[in-house]
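Researcher: Structure prediction, please.
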Amino acid sequence: MSALAVKQRFDSLLADWQSRPEPERVPTGIPEIDQATGGVPRGALTEICGPASSGRTTLLVSIMAEAAAREEYCALVDAEDSFDPASAREAGVRLDRLLWVQCGHNAEHALKAADLLVQGGGFGLVAMDLGETPPETARRISLTSWFRLRRAVEHTPTALVSLALEANAKTCATLVVELRRERAAWSGERGPAGSPSHLLRAVTVRVSSERRSKVCSPVFTAKAI
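Model: Predicted structure follows.
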């Protein structure tokens, strides 16, 4: 193939990519994050990453509760068997519309399960929780596997969300939301551990989101329940 033909082919692919309409986005249930990101895109992969106690699980549960409010079915692929159904139900997740897949601490099995669920269809949301998976294990998931997962969800009404300590899918993710806890606000006088006079009132979290070429970094306060 000549250099001219290659350039024409590249220009054609680039024009096709640029002309694609923005995917439909669904709310996360947290207004500050929705304002920053526009919501979670359907037919695409979203990564939510951050350390423990950064609010990543709260955000995922909120997304699941929003899907339940839309009467959609959800699937949760739980790599490390860390899901707590009772607290999720209290947060608004409808367990009768949730398929919970436990993967016995196997990240590769979690990826394959998510792939099968996306290809099977019928879910408004498929979430894969790698939040407790060691980073070195998550990094061993090949970029080819992430690309295959992204291709599987394209042109479907499913929102695919991956939760992890750090971003792993790289360019295969349409949206990356990174959370970092900055500080906690307490009320009452500091006393012994478990003292009822010293209560957690709020946690300030920094949220950085990246989608294609747009980056935004708002800060919001999440009220503790």
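Model: The helical segments are 3-19, 31-37, 56-69, 85-90, 107-120, 135-139, 143-153.
Researcher: Thanks, that helps.
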